[in-house]
Design brief:
The protein is mainly alpha-helical and 271 residues long. It has helices at residues 2-9, 15-41, 61-81, 85-102, 109-123, 132-135, 145-165, 169-172, 175-180, 183-192, 195-212, 219-236, 242-258, 264-270; strands spanning 11-13, 47-50, 57-60, 142-144. The longest helix has 27 residues, at 15-41.
C-alpha cells in the first residue's frame, strides 16, 4: 500500500511532457483547421443528424459543427502555448469529441487518440514546462509519474494492437500493401523485396516499438526507428492518405518523447 501511495505521489521532470504537448498541439491544430474547412462545406444542409444516440437528433449545422471547430482551433493555440493548460486542454478535448459526435464522417482513429492524449496531458500538468503557465510561475516544473505512465501505456497499446490486427492472411500476404502503396514506390520496393516480406517487417517493427521504448537503452534506438517508420508511411502510402498519416505520425511522436522523461530523484542520486 505504501509503495502504491509513493508511486501516486511521485513527481518527475516535466520538460519531455512540455515538448510532447507542443508536438501534439500542432498536430491537433492542423487537423482542426482542415476539419473546419470540411465542416464549412456542410453548411448547405439545414441540419446534421447526431449519429450515435438511440434517436436521430437533428442539430443546427452551423451552430454546433462549425462553432465546435472554431473553438477546436482556438483551444489548440492555447494548448500549444501552455496557457491555462488544464482548462484549455479540457475544452479542446470536448471540442474534438463534439465535432466527432455531430457527424460520424469526422471520426478517425487518430482523431479519437488525439482527444484522449490531450485529456491525459492536461491531467498530467503538461503546462509545467515550456509554457505561458510556467512563465507566470504556475507549478513547480514537475508532473505526476502515474499520468506519464498512462501516456506511455497508450503508445504501447497503439503499436501492439496495430501489430496484432495485422496478423492475418490478407495483410501478411502483402495484398493490403499492394492496394495501399503508391504505385511508383511499390515497383521500387518489389525490386528489393516481396510485399509479404515488407508486411512481416512492418509487424515486427510495430511489435518492437510497442516494447522497445520501455528499455532505458533501447528507447534511443526505438526513437529513430519510429520516426523513420512513420516518415516511410507518409511518403510511400497513397497520396489520399498522406495527410492523415502525417497527423498520426506527429501524435505518435508526442508519445515517444514522453518516454524520455527524467526522474529528478534519480538524477540527484547520481550526482
Amino acid at each position: 500500500m505504501q509503495s502504491l501511495t509513493a508511486f501516486l505521489d511521485e513527481r518527475v521532470d516535466g520538460r519531455a511532457l512540455g515538448i510532447a504537448r507542443i508536438i501534439l498541439g500542432i498536430a491537433v491544430l492542423v487537423k482542426g483547421l482542415v476539419t473546419a474547412a470540411i465542416l464549412h462545406e456542410f453548411q448547405t444542409s439545414d441540419t446534421v443528424l447526431y449519429p450515435y444516440g438511440p434517436l436521430e437528433i437533428a442539430t443546427p449545422a452551423g451552430v454546433i459543427a462549425t462553432g465546435a471547430s472554431v473553438f477546436w482551433v482556438l483551444f489548440s493555440l492555447f494548448f500549444i502555448a501552455g496557457f491555462g493548460t488544464r482548462i484549455s486542454g479540457a475544452l479542446l478535448t470536448v471540442s474534438i469529441l463534439l465535432v466527432v459526435g455531430v457527424d460520424q464522417q469526422m471520426y478517425s482513429n487518430h482523431l479519437y487518440l488525439s482527444a484522449l492524449l490531450v485529456a491525459l496531458m492536461s491531467i498530467a500538468s503538461a503546462g509545467s514546462r515550456y509554457s505561458v503557465d510556467a512563465r507566470l510561475g504556475s507549478g513547480d516544473g514537475l508532473t505526476p509519474r502515474w499520468a506519464i505512465m498512462l501516456i506511455k501505456l497508450q503508445l504501447t497499446s497503439v503499436y501492439g494492437f496495430a501489430a496484432i490486427t495485422k496478423l492475418n492472411e490478407g495483410f501478411l500476404s502483402g495484398r493490403v500493401l499492394e492496394r495501399s502503396l503508391e504505385p511508383a514506390y511499390r515497383e521500387r520496393i518489389e525490386r528489393i523485396m516481396s510485399l509479404d516480406v515488407l508486411a512481416i517487417t512492418a509487424v515486427i517493427t510495430e511489435l518492437f516499438l510497442a516494447a522497445g521504448f520501455w528499455h532505458s537503452r533501447l528507447r534511443y534506438v526505438a526513437l529513430p526507428i519510429g520516426i523513420g517508420f512513420h516518415i516511410t508511411n507518409v511518403v510511400m502510402m497513397s497520396s489520399s492518405g498522406r495527410f492523415n498519416f502525417s497527423i498520426f505520425a506527429l501524435v505518435m511522436l508526442s508519445m515517444m518523447v514522453v518516454f524520455f522523461t527524467r526522474n529528478p530523484r534519480i538524477q540527484e542520486d547520481q550526482v
